[in-house]
């Protein structure tokens, strides 16, 4: 006897099978959840300002705006100011006597938004900035560059550096009068391979200058080089910072680089 397979169908909940997806059915696309007005308010707060809030400010600007004003008494008695607010955990809320589970979860979600924004602000904040070539004869390539620097500063190409908690930014500006593109580069600490602090001699070897070489595995350097553009610096072509504060910059970068590696390994 021949059986017709179309007579049978899989029933969910019986043997763990699920009905087959028909070709005519459209795939389900998960849309990003829309933020509530309270969440938008919290995201617009400045963590640096929140950390200076008094207990009254926390009650007025945070708890009441979140619809949790009934917690104000517990927060006041336990002196929860702005700095303490961003240190709260769910265990602390238990100690404060907040027994409603939904309110605890909601409050921790809002505090989590503040903590993430604080972390992002700390990572993007500038820890050092400077311009090369730095002032002084020792930081010029040769006597010709020295003459240009002192006679016509605008005719000297400059590189602007900014070191943050996430990586190193630098922008190369061409000399005035040259219609060339301003180049902006970013080096992420996750791709750093090595740092080397050196003492070099420039300007006819009369002066000693501090120089920091940064070896970075630039993923974009493996791409095809566009016609007329200089080669992209890669892992074997270090990014060089010649500046009197190179030793200070090396320590800042090394500390941030170590934190980035710890986060990646964790």
TrEMBL record:
It holds the Pfam family SAM_1. It comes from the Eukaryota. SUPFAM superfamilies: SAM/Pointed domain. InterPro entries: SAM (IPR001660), SAM/pointed_sf (IPR013761). Signal peptide: none annotated. Residues 53-117 form the SAM domain. PROSITE patterns: SAM_DOMAIN (PS50105). Coiled coil: none annotated. Residues 1-23 are annotated as: Disordered. This is SAM domain-containing protein. It comes from Stylophora pistillata (Smooth cauliflower coral).
């Amino acid at each position: 006897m021949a059986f017709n397979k179309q007579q049978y169908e899989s029933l969910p909940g019986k043997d763990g099978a699920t009905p087959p997806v028909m070709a005519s059915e459209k795939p389900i696309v998960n849309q990003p959840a829309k933020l509530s007005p309270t969440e938008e308010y919290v995201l617009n707060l400045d963590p640096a300002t929140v950390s200076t809030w008094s207990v009254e400010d926390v009650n007025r600007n945070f708890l009441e705006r979140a619809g949790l004003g009934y917690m104000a008494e517990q927060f006041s008695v336990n002196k929860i100011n702005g700095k303490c607010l961003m240190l709260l955990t769910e265990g602390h809320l238990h100690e404060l006597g907040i027994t409603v589970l939904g309110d605890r979860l909601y409050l921790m979600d809002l505090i989590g938004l503040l903590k993430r924004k604080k972390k992002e602000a700390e990572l993007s904040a500038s820890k050092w900035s400077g311009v090369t070539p730095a002032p002084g004869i020792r930081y010029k390539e040769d006597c010709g560059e020295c003459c240009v620097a002192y006679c016509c500063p605008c005719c000297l190409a400059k590189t602007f550096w900014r070191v943050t908690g996430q990586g190193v930014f630098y922008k190369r500006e061409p000399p005035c009068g040259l219609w060339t593109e301003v180049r902006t580069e970013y080096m992420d600490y996750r791709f750093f391979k090595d740092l080397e602090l050196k003492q070099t001699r420039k300007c006819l070897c009369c002066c000693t200058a501090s120089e920091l070489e940064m070896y970075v595995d630039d993923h974009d350097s493996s791409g095809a080089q566009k016609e007329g553009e200089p080669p992209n610096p890669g892992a074997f072509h270090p990014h060089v910072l010649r500046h009197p504060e190179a030793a200070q910059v090396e320590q800042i970068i090394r500390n941030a680089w170590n934190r980035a590696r710890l986060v990646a390994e964790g």
